[in-house]
Amino acid sequence: MGKTIAQKIIAAHLLSGRLTPGSEVALRIDQTLTQDATGTMAYLALEGMGIPRVKTELSIAYVDHNTLQCGFENADDHQYLQTVAAKYGVRFSRPGNGICHQVHLERFGKPGKTLIGSDSHTPTAGGLGMLAFGAGGMDVAAAMGGGAYYITMPKMFRVNLIGTLRPGVTAKDISLEILRILSVKGGVGAIIEWGGPGVANLSVPERATITNMGAELGATTSVFPADDVTKAFLAAQGREEDFTPIFADEDAVYDRIIDIDLGALTPRIACPHSPDNVKSVAELKEIKVDQVCIGSCTNSSLADLLKVAAILKGKKIAPHVSLSISPGSRQVLSMLAKCGALEDILASGARLLECACGPCIGMGFSPNSGGVSLRTFNRNFLGRSGTRDGQVYLVSPETAAASALRGYITDPMTLEVQPAITMPEQFTIDDSGVLMPLDEEAAKDAKVLRGPNIKEFPVGKAMEDAISGAVVLKVGDNITTDHIMPAGAKILPYRSNIPFLSKFCFEVCDPAFPERAKATHNGIILGGENYGQGSSREHAALVPMYLGVRCVIAKSFARIHVANLINAGILPLTLANADDYDALEQGAALALENIHSGMENGTLTATAGDQKITLRCDLTQRQRSILMAGGLLRYIGEGGL
Q1: What does the pLDDT read at residue 641?
Q2: Could you give the CA distance from residue 397 to residue 68 in angstroms, rounded to a whole number?
Q3: Which residue, among 412, 343, 346, has the nearest Cα to 376 in the 3D structure?
Q4: Which of the 8 DSSP states describes residue 522?
Q5: Which of 226, 560, 578, 580 has the fewest CB atoms in 10 Å of its CB?
Q6: What is the DSSP string of 532-594?
Q7: Is the predicted pLDDT of residue 104 greater than 80, yes or no?
Q8: What is the mean pLDDT of residues 243-249?
Q9: What is the distance, to the nearest Å, from the Cα of residue 262 to the centroid of all Cα atoms in its chain?
Q10: DSSP assigned state of 329
Q11: pLDDT > 90? residue 191
């Protein structure tokens, strides 16, 4: 039986385990990336492990999230990241050099390699034929230290693309279509491979848009073949030597196959407040638009912005619309300026933002109260934009540009002239924005600089055999890490200060939660389906642990978040009977006994008054050991790397 692309890469990096869905596999990791909103905690964890030098082929610390410097906090974090990277053998991508996923795609990603990053959209690199995973910072730190990365061996989904996209229809519309088909939890436990004859018609940036949005499906990762299109992209970046062809075998077996006829697809739009709330753009053409944001790691490539410039050229945006443009990298911005496209964009009335994540994580450019904001981003969770009642829609760059001109949601297929662009044969290469680390000898005496906002990494405590506590919070389905630990300009500067950050935990759901949790010993959170979807931010586990949460019970969990809970020493349990969710109320007293044996045999019983609730505890031996130790850092301290 033949192998899929993912199975081939996993087999080549397998340290332990079997390629059997549901079993745990340990992978050798070639590359890592961090970004500044999660990176500080990752490097604090690395320092705590006592490893003098990273052991990966390549590790890069990017600064792209916390670039709005209203005080010393973000600047201090950046100084810490630069000095810790220099000491430990990590390259440092300076503020302004670009968004981690866009820069990594351009300059560092390699087909057939493994990559983990402390950002959930790390699978973007799957557009190059990498096997790239989003992970918590502690897992990234462990990989930098030479440890394996552990995942549950996923199922294999195949999406066959047939035909060619019509003018006005884009890769973003393919992403939204698969979200419409599968939903935000339809990819859980699976790797999604893209294939079929239509793949040859998609550029690497278009493929990267699709693998980026695979994170919204809950998929373990997404990957495209590495073919002649990939080779041409790498050659244009001056990196042809990094190319390795990768294809699935013709007789590879998949657990599910989905066919998408590209020729039948029309522009799609995700309505508030979920990426899978997808409709056709044509259905919503009478909705007035207040704001348009073009950029993010999903749609900020040179090709994306050249198409936007072609649509805007010689025209003005509607008087009531505010339009922002965020190029994905300094390379993109430089090439837009050289060819004159940037002038066309600015002449339309657009505002140019820096090469960073910006509005995508609520770092500036929030919409007006109740405002309709069209964004080329990957998430439109409630409040993520920084405006609690903002109405955020996800669209392609073409839909965004057309709508900015008309002032209403506009189907780009209705444009009189479709944008025509010519991509350069060679990209402008300038890697001066990436600083190399010190050599090993110089690194020995190098100092790591820490500002006063950088606090110690919180450490969990060993798992007791019995926990008696209260349900300190009950929440519904699809709770995101933005619900648990919000982003935004007000909160992001404190990502390296867990005590202060804890004041905002679950602020969107219940502002009283932090104080209630602190006052309750051994707090328990009750959640619905797909608890913890979204970002890889381990703060969504570290902060509840700091507030005294010992256990989270849910109907089901998102992949990265359940790993982060375990790494933080919080016990994740799933309801054996989903109906028990309705029987438990916030404030209910719960008792868990015989936890150690229950972790071993996979079943625990919780007592709530006269009620007995059966809970599943699906853990590997390694995960049990981490919980018993009190979290990943304690486990590694005991020799568990």
Answers
A1: 72
A2: 24
A3: 412
A4: T
A5: 578
A6: TBS---THHHHHHHHTTEEEEEES-B-HHHHHHHHHHTPEEEEESSTTHHHH--TT-EEEE--
A7: yes
A8: 98
A9: 26
A10: B
A11: yes
Extract the tokens encoding 590.
């719960």
**3-state secondary structure at position 515:** helix
pLDDT over threshold 90, residue 146:
yes
Torsion, CA 274, CA 280, CA 282, CA 284, rounded to 10: -20
Can you name the residues that pair with 191 across neighbouring β-strands?
156, 221
Residue 222: beta bridge partners? Answer: 192
Could you tell me how many helices (H) and strands (E) the chain has, helices first?
22, 27
For 360-374, how does the pLDDT look when each residue is reduced to its tens digit (9 = 90+)? 998 889 999 999 999
The three-state DSSP-derived secondary structure of 149-213 is EEEECCEEEEEEEECCCCCCCCHHHHHHHHHHHHCCCCCECEEEEEECHHHHHCCHHHHHHHHHH
pLDDT value of residue 417:
87
- Does the pLDDT of residue 166 top 80, yes or no? yes
Q: Which residues contact 567 (CB under 8 A, 6 or more apart)?
A: 136, 138, 139, 538, 541, 626, 631, 632
Question: Could you tell me the pTM of the whole model?
Answer: 0.95
Give pLDDT, residue 96.
96
Single out the residue of 338, 308, 498 nearest to residue 401, CA to CA: 308
Q: pLDDT, tens digit, for every residue of 484-528?
A: 999 888 888 999 999 999 999 999 899 999 999 999 889 999 999
Q: Provide the H-helix boundaries in 353-452.
A: 397-406, 440-443
Give the tokens for residue 45. 């964890």
**Close Cβ partners of 291 (under 8 Å, ≥ 6 residues apart):** 321, 322, 323, 324, 365, 367, 368, 371, 372, 373, 374
Q: State residue 638's pLDDT score.
A: 85
Regarding beta strands 467-474 and 523-527, do their DSSP bridges make them parallel or antiparallel, or are they unpaired?
parallel
The identity of residue 206, as a single letter, is: E
Region 240-252: mean pLDDT is 98
* C-alpha closest to that of 469 among 335, 345, 606: 606
* Tokens at 124, concatenated: 């973007």
* pLDDT per residue as tens digits for the range 78-96: 999 999 999 999 999 999 9
Contacts of 439 (CB under 8 A, 6+ apart): none
25-62 as b/e: b if 16+ CB within 10 A: bebbbbbbbbbbbbbbbbbbbbebbebeebebebbbbb
Q: What is the pLDDT of residue 490?
A: 86
Edge to edge, the sheet with strand 372-375 lists 278-280, 268-270, 391-394, 372-375, 291-294, 322-325, 351-352
- DSSP assignment letter at 22: T
Instruction: 228-237: list long-range contacts, CB under 8 Å, 24+ apart.
Output: 228/200, 229/200, 229/202, 229/203, 229/204, 230/111, 230/128, 230/129, 230/204, 233/128, 233/203, 233/204, 234/128, 236/423, 236/424, 236/425, 236/426, 236/427, 237/106, 237/107, 237/427, 237/429
- Residue 597 contacts by C-beta under 8 Å, 6 or more apart in sequence? none
Choose among 394, 347, 389, 345: nearest CA to 371: 389
Q: Are 476 and 556 in contact (CB under 8 A)?
A: no
pLDDT of residue 419: 87
Mean pLDDT (whole number) for 6-25 = 96
- d(Cα 387, Cα 304) in Å, to the nearest integer? 26
Answer for the pair 155, 219: CB distance below 8 angstroms, yes or no: no
pLDDT at residue 488, as a whole number: 86
Give the least confident one: 360-364, 442-446, 546-550.
360-364
